[in-house]
Amino acid sequence: MEAALKSEEAVPLFDAAAERFREVTCTGLLNWGNVSLCLAHKLLDGFAQESEVLTDEMAAKTEEEFKKAEGRYQQALDFHPEFFDALCALGQLEFERAKLRARLLVKPAAAPAPAPADKAEGAAEEGGAAAGKEGGRPLDAPARALREALAKVRAEDVEAARPYMQRAAEWYKKAVAAANAADAKRKEQQQEQETQEGAGGGEGEGAAAGAAAAAGGGGAGADMGDVSLGTQALIMEGNVLYEWSQLLAAAGAEWRPTLDGAVERFRGAACSEADVRSALKNHTRAAELDLGPDPEEEAAKAKAAEQEAAAAAAAAEAEAAAAAAAAKQQPEKAKGLPSLGRKKP
User: Fold this and answer.
1) How many alpha carbons lie under 13 Å from residue 315 in its C-beta half-sphere?
2) Whether the Cβ atoms of residue 195 and residue 183 lie closer than 8 Å to each other
3) What crossing angle do the helices spanning 256-268 and 229-250 adopt, rounded to 10°?
4) Where are the beta strands (DSSP E) in the chain?
5) Tens digit of each residue's pLDDT (9 = 90 or more) over 133-157
6) How many CB atoms are closer than 10 A to CB 196?
7) Which of 37, 149, 187, 205 has CA atoms 20 to 30 A from the CA of 249?
8) How far apart are alpha carbons 287 and 295 in whole angstroms?
9) Among 167, 146, 159, CA closest to 246
10) What is the DSSP string of 266-280?
11) pLDDT at 122
C-alpha cells in the first residue's frame, strides 16, 4: 500500500481527490450562503405581512443576511474562482438587492383551504372571479400579489436599483464564461476517457472520471443530465431580466429592451417557443405585446373544425343510408290486374 502511494501512478489519483475535496468544500460554502439567503426571504415575508412599505430598518436587517450569504459565496470563489454555482448565486444576490433597493415588498400567498367535494366547483368559479384577470385569464394568488406590490413601487427607488442590476449582469457574464469553459473541458475529459476505454486502457479510469466531474464546476448545476451549464446560466439570467423588466414597467421606465434581452437568453438556451410565449403571456405588460394568434389555440380550432366537418359528413352519409334503406322497405304497386268493371256488349 505504501509503495503504491509513493509511485508516480498515484499522482493523478491524488489530483482527482484534491479536486473532489475542493468541489465539496465549495458546495458546502454555497449551501451555507443559501441558508442566509433563505433567512433574508423569510424576513421579507414577515415584513410584507406586517407592513405595506419596506422601511429602512427592514431593509438593513435584510441586507445583513445578504452580506452573510455574499461572504460564503466569495469564500467558495476563493477556493475555486470559476465555481459556476457561486457565480450564479452572486448574480442572483445582486438582483435580490436590486429588488430590496426598489422597495419591492411582495406579500406571500396564503395556501387556500381545501373546499368540500360538493362545493369544489362553485368555489373554483368564485376564486377565479375574485382573483382578477389579466388579458381575459384569471390570475393566481402569487401573480396577483406581485402586481399589487409592483403598483406601489416608486420610480426613484427603481432608478436607484440600477447599479445592482449592472453588477448582476457582470456576475452572469462571468458565470456564462465559466460554464462554457467547464462544458468544453468536461466534454474533452469524456472524449479522452472514451478513447482510453476503446483502446482497452482501463488503468487510470477512476482518476479520469474524477477529473471530469471536477471539471464541471461543482455544485448542483454540474449534475443535471444533458442540460449544459451554459444553458442553465442563460436561463437564470433570462429570468432575472424578465422580472427586472416588470419592475421597470411599473416605474414607467423603458422596459421593452430588457424583456427582449430576456427572450434572447431564453432562445439562446434553446427554450421551446411555447415556453417563451407562455412567459410573455404572463408578463404584466402582456397586453402591450404583439404576440399574434396563439399557435396552440389556432391548432385546436383547426382540429375542432376538422372534427366538426368529419362529424357532419358522417351524419350526412348516415342520413343518406337511412333514406335508401327506407325506400327499399316500401311495397311496390301491383301491375297487370284484370279490370273488375262490366264490359259493354
Assistant:
1) 6
2) no
3) 160
4) 133-134, 137-138
5) 555 566 788 999 999 999 999 999 9
6) 15
7) 37
8) 17
9) 146
10) HHHTT--HHHHHHHH
11) 45
208 C-beta neighbours (distance < 10 Å), count: 20
Burial class (CB in 10 A: 0-12, 13-18, 19+), 254: exposed
The helix (run of H) or strand (run of E) holding residue 160 is helix 155-160
Amino acid (one-letter) located at 126 = E
Query: Do residues 193 and 290 touch, judged by C-beta distance below 8 A?
Result: no
Whole-prediction pTM: 0.72
Question: Which residues touch 226 (CB under 8 Å, ≥6 apart)?
Answer: none
Q: Grid coordinates representing 264?
A: 434572447
Give strand pairing partners of 134.
Answer: 137
pLDDT digits (tens, 9 = 90+) for 29-85: 999 999 999 999 999 999 999 999 999 999 999 999 999 999 999 999 999 999 999
Alpha carbon 137 to chain centroid, angstroms: 20
Q: What is the mean pLDDT of residues 258-280?
A: 96
End-to-end CA distance of the chain: 143
Tally helices (H) and strands (E) across the chain: 13, 2
- Alpha-carbon distance of 266 to 237, in angstroms, equals 9
Residues above pLDDT 90, as percent of the chain = 55
How many angstroms separate the CA atoms of 194 and 188, rounded?
Answer: 10
Residue 321 has pLDDT above 90, yes or no: no
Strand partners, 138: 133
Query: In the prediction, which pLDDT does 320 show?
Result: 78
Q: 252 or 319: which carries more pLDDT confidence?
A: 252
E-assigned strand segments in 137-229 = 137-138
